[in-house]
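Fold Annotation — chain and its backbone
Next Lines — sequence and tokenised fold

***
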Amino acid sequence: MKKRILLVLLSALLIAAFVLTPHIGRADLGDFSGGGDYGGGGSDWGGGSDWGSSDWGSSSSGVYSSRSGGSCGATDLFFVVIVVAVILIIVFTKSKKSGSRTVTPGATRTAASKLHPISELQSRDPNFSEEDLRERLQNLYIKMQDCCRKRDVEPIRPYFADALYQQFDRQMKQLRLNRRTNYVERVAVLSVDLKGCYQDKGEDVIVAEIYARITDYTLDDETGKVVAGSRDHEKFMTYEYSLSRPVGRKTDPRAEGVTERHCPNCGAPLSVNESIKCPYCDSVLTFSDHDWTVYSIKGISQRTV
């Protein structure tokens, strides 16, 4: 009972510290890469996460700005909270058995029992290529990090469900507001594994796992100083991407690298690769009704070396 009370009090104090403290954004697009390693089952963007009911979700992900009108009083209170929290952590740690260890979890993977072999999808869509989709996800991941550095995610808008894109866009706006730039360098996608597929609410869904190596850090635009992350330490990241498209939609064998579409507003032919706006009427095109779009990204694990 005493342990439970200590945990509740500690949680309340840490939440208060989080609210009162200016937060520097975690790195990579989606804020899955942070200062502390994790693994196993935490940050979750897209369907099924807290993002649906909150602009910024939980404290485990998102770029947060300092509270407006902050004062020295709030800062002093923050240090008091931290001191008390540290004391409680020490007390609680001593009460546990020697040698025990708490591991910060990542997001929970989609249950294997829910997934069907990709071959089932290929039987309904003979032109579907696992190799092409893996290559597309690899290129998309690299482009995402470049967009994060430029603080502009509009070039990748067609590849994401609108709700997920809006979350990315808010992250970039917060970086611009804080006058900070996130750099993700030495990016290497080590593997893309299509774990399986299933159908849900009239959509075909593919679950893919991406394993990547990155170096990330955030600079203050005015001083050029590193305010988060490291230029030197590499992070090995594991993500789970969920992609969907309407059931019955089939792969267009004519689309080789560039997806041919027509503007939904004026009907003009479009080649969607780098550009997502119709050059005739400025309408924005997305793939949600035509092709595979990413609607959820989960941070499964991070290991820093």
The chain has a mean pLDDT of 74. The longest strand covers residues 180-200. The chain has one domain: 1-60+71-305.
